[in-house]
Amino acid sequence: MVADFTAGTLLELAAAGRLAAEYPLVCRIVAALAQQEQAQGELVRAGRLLERVDPAEIQRLHPDLPGVSVGITGHGTLSGLTPPLRAEFARHGLVARPMVTGFDGYVRELGDPDSELSAARPDLVLCVLDPAMVFDEVPLPWTPEDVERAATAKVALIERLAERYTGTGRGTLVLNTMPLTRRHTAQLVDWRSRARLGAVWRQANARLLALAEQHPSVVVVDLDPLVAEGVPVGDDRLGTYAKAHLTDDLLAAYAREIGHLARNLVGRTKKCLVLDLDDTLWGGVLGDDGVDGIELGGGYRGEAFLAFQRVAKQLGSQGVLLAAVSKNDPDLVERALRDHPAMALRDADFVQVVANWRPKHENLAGLADRLGLAVDSFVFVDDSPYERGLVRRELPGVAVVDVDGEPALHAARLLRDGWFDQRELTGEDRVRPARYREEAARKGFLDRFDSVQDYLRELDVRVRVGPATEPEAARVSQLTLRTNQFNLTGRRLQPQDVRRLLHDPDALVLAVHVADRFGDSGLVGAVLARWRGDLLHIDNFLLSCRVFSRSVEEACLNWVLRHARDRGAAAVLAGYRPSSRNGLVRDFYPRNGFVPEGDDGTMLTFRHPLTEIAPPPAHIRLVEVHEAP
């Protein structure tokens, strides 16, 4: 099983020259290594092996694996960043394509539109900031006021560079806060001056953090939480001799955060947290100990389980779907969630609670089917090594979190890998669990009818199609990043990309809202198109899995075709790029009046002549909005 892989397995592949050919297996091995003790060292060693492999060769052999180009620049020596970065990307099934610019060249690389970095147009630009950037500028001797002047000037420079790069470059610019080390504070001998230095430093970092709010294409990684975990900031010898101002350990921890960001960029953020119950969500075995006998609250172990429940509830409040899968009696589980006085998570917090005696991997597959999600959007937490190993073997796309007999560590182990991290939280995120519970009610309603058509007529589906607005840009971006099944071309857009399209007179960005008798499903679809002369090109069409099987997609396409005809278009062109996840929409355009136009090996193209447009489905009320409010 994958859990049995070791670094030796990776060495064997490297020795045989098989790392590129076996890269999907390499990804699984690295993911398994990440779960072991001393995982950071193992990942760095794995990354050094991957440094020998040309990313272009990996992608040539495995074109379905997403590649992410990463430009790396900064003030100091950053060669220690690329090995952990390669490994972190691999563990998430990605191919890192890093390029490191010249030493201390960040001003030119970000400020000059003709620089090497700007010309490469990477998906991610990492401008790694360190405390030496400021302290190299202070006089000798220095005071907190000198540091304040230097830090203010340096942050102002970073602000100008961020504005310039985000105005002309593409991709996401990643900055970070600068840790303050004791080496600097200890050079001040009075406590008052040290406090002043701390205040000055934190003000500078606060300005850096604010850049993420000022520029949608900027992400700022706060290094203070990583340092608080005990990661050393600097090594005096390496800092002096090699100008490596951040330790390899801190760069590795930083690379872990960048791996989470890259996973989000390519649409691989997880959606659903699936929890075991006995000895995971509470202590003890419910069937043996009874509702009153499980450990939750009260004693020290009970408090640890309760703390873990609170973390899960906090994640659920931000759009992470919570589900439970347990080998247990369903009535007993229902009583525990309803009646135990210390329970932080109640039945209403879960989109599904599955309690039976079937194997966990079968229940996970069934759960994915009922929720309309891909199973690889799950994060599974279980205290049983057997169950974890079985899920890893049978469902390798599921992220499995190892927890054991120490409940105080459950939360840290879940949170360590940022499975649910995303660029920006939207209003849709906060109500997502309620939407999925509404979907369960719809499925129950379906059971009352003899035919699907009768069900659809009574469902009273209302579809509103119209130009997306500025506040909807983050949600449209999120749809491109999170939607995989009904995603015709797989084009991923960041919020700033959507905002640029909204201001492009030749672009058409449509938002699709759906509601029915059970409630408002919200903004669940988007159409991205562009006018080229008298032709309208559909660049992508996306629809959330929550509204599948209601003919919403046909109603939206009807709107687009009629809009194009009314604007005098000669035809509408559209493309389909096959992926491992979107096979169900392969024939979407041919089924709706489009004829084949071409096939370049990666994209199938289709044309609709607009001579005859089928009416929208009879059971759908199509509400049209022709101008953005």
Structural overview:
The chain folds into 4 domains: 63 residues, no CATH class; 200 residues, 3-Layer(aba) Sandwich (Rossmann fold); 165 residues, 3-Layer(aba) Sandwich (Rossmann fold); 169 residues, Gcn5-related N-acetyltransferase (GNAT) (Aminopeptidase, 3-Layer(aba) Sandwich). Helix content is 43%, strand content 18%. It has 26 helices and 18 strands. It has an 8-stranded mixed sheet with strand order 16-17-15-14-13-12-11-18, with helices on both faces. Strands 2-1-3-4-5 form a 5-stranded parallel sheet, sandwiched between helices. The protein has a 5-stranded parallel sheet with strand order 8-7-6-9-10, sandwiched between helices. Helix 17 links the parallel strand 7 and strand 8. Helix 3 packs across helix 5 and helix 23 packs across helix 24. The radius of gyration is 26 Å and the shape is globular.
Secondary-structure blueprint:
Blueprint: H1 7-15, H2 23-33, H3 39-50, H4 55-61, E1 67-74, H5 82-91, E2 95-100, H6 106-111, H7 116-120, E3 124-128, H8 132-135, H9 144-168, E4 172-176, H10 182-185, H11 191-214, E5 218-221, H12 224-228, H13 236-241, H14 248-265, E6 272-275, H15 286-289, H16 300-316, E7 321-327, H17 330-339, E8 352-356, H18 360-371, E9 378-382, H19 385-394, E10 399-402, H20 410-415, H21 427-446, H22 452-459, E11 461-467, H23 473-482, H24 495-502, E12 507-516, E13 519-532, E14 535-543, H25 552-566, E15 571-576, H26 588-591, E16 595-599, E17 604-608, E18 620-624
Parallel strand pairs: 1-2, 1-3, 3-4, 4-5, 6-7, 6-9, 7-8, 9-10, 11-18, 14-15
Antiparallel strand pairs: 11-12, 12-13, 13-14, 15-17, 16-17
